[in-house]
Structure formats: C-alpha cells, structure tokens
Amino acid sequence: MRKGAGTILIVIMVMALSLFGCDGSDGDSGSGRSSQRNLPEVTVAEAEQAMSDAMLISALSLFLAFGAEEGDTSVSNEEGSLSLSWDDEADLMTGIGLYTITMKDYTVPSDDPFGAEYNGYVLNGTVIMGSTDGISTTLEMDLGMSHEDAENYPVQTISMDLKGFQDDAEQMPTGDIRINGHEMNFEDLAQAFE
Questions:
Q1: What pLDDT score does 100 carry?
Q2: What is the mean pLDDT of residues 140-150?
Q3: Which of 31, 61, 99, 114 has the fewest CB atoms within 10 Å of its CB?
Q4: Which of the listed ranges 114-128, 129-143, 171-185 does the model predict with the highest average pLDDT?
C-alpha cells in the first residue's frame, strides 16, 4: 500500500489540523476518569510539555505509513513500540475511517531529527483519529506517561475526547481535555497542538 501511504499522512494531518488550527475552549466534562483525580494538578506549561510530546509522537507515527504494503491495515516500528492502524472501511482519499496510533513505552530516539522538540516523556496508550463523513473529525487520547525527572515533568495521564470540523475553520473543537484527571482549558493548551 505504498501508493496510499502518502495519502494516509495527508488525511491524518488534515484531520489533526482541522481540530487544532485555531484557538477554542473545551466543552463538557468527560466521565469515568475519577481514578485520576488523586494525581497532582499541573501548570499550563507542564501540561503543554506533555501534550507537545504526545502530539509529536503521534505525528512521527504517520511516517510508519511509508512502510505499509498494498492491502495492509497496520504497520509498526521494528521494536513494536509504535504502531499505526486503520480500519477496513478507511477511504484514504476522503479521510473517512478510523486511524489508531498505539504507543508502548515509546520514546523519541536520541538521533531522531525531531528530538530537539522532545521533552522526554515515555508514552503508553492510544491516540485515535477518525471521520465518518469526511467533514467532522474526532480525536481521542488515552495515554499514560512517565518521565525520569518526575518532579519537573509531573504529567502521568492525558485523556482527551475532541471533535472538530474540516470545512469550517471558525468552528471551535468541542469536548474535553484532562491532564492527570483534572480538566484543562483547550484555549490555554492550544499552543501545544501547533
């Protein structure tokens, strides 16, 4: 599926940009995350560092698509610590479908060209991007994080459920973002998505 690999990258990048191309505010609170409420609250700067690593690694995973063969619906790095998959109904030309990024104790390699942007978090969990109509897009994150300098990098979880629209740059994403189980304002964190 090398022919479609570039299209996958374009589709996923368009979905991400459509969600985060402008400032906005978060919506209603999510549920089922009460177990994270005992984790420490973090500053906006600390949250941005963690979100930046999550978005960086999500973007890096898109390059895995270049290694996909015709008929593949998933591809991973050699270690199996980072993978990208898409559902059977995915239409790579329109962006319709579900795209899942899975991280297992993943860190950005020291020799990676994007390493200078990396804050050092180790990530576990999933990022799911999708669209059922090629117009509205969703982004979900359910990530556990750790850092060797936990005092200065205290984020341990990111939970996100956002929805945006590709055809309306003025439409703000809706949903919620929780860092360490505490709700955070999308507008404050918007820089991490750029």
A1: 95
A2: 97
A3: 31
A4: 114-128
Q: What are phi and psi of 117, to 5 degrees?
A: -90, -5
Which residues have CB under 8 Å from 105's CB, separation 6+? 81, 122, 123, 124
Segment 96-114, tens digit of pLDDT: 889 899 999 999 988 888 8
State the residue for tokens 């200078």.
Answer: 116
174 and 168 Cβ atoms separated by less than 8 Å: no
pTM to 2 decimal places: 0.78
Distances (CA, A) of 145 to 16, 88, 141: 21, 30, 12
Do 127 and 54 meet the contact criterion of CB atoms below 8 Å apart?
A: yes
CA angle 178, 181, 184 (to 5 degrees): 35
**Distance separating alpha carbons of residues 105 and 16, to the nearest angstrom:** 23
Q: Is 183 a residue whose pLDDT tops 80?
A: yes
Residue 105 CA to residue 56 CA, distance in Å, equals: 15
Determine the Cα–Cα distance for residues 32 and 5; give it in Å rounded to an integer: 36
> CB-based contacts of 125: which residues, under 8 Å, 6+ apart?
102, 103, 141, 142, 143, 144
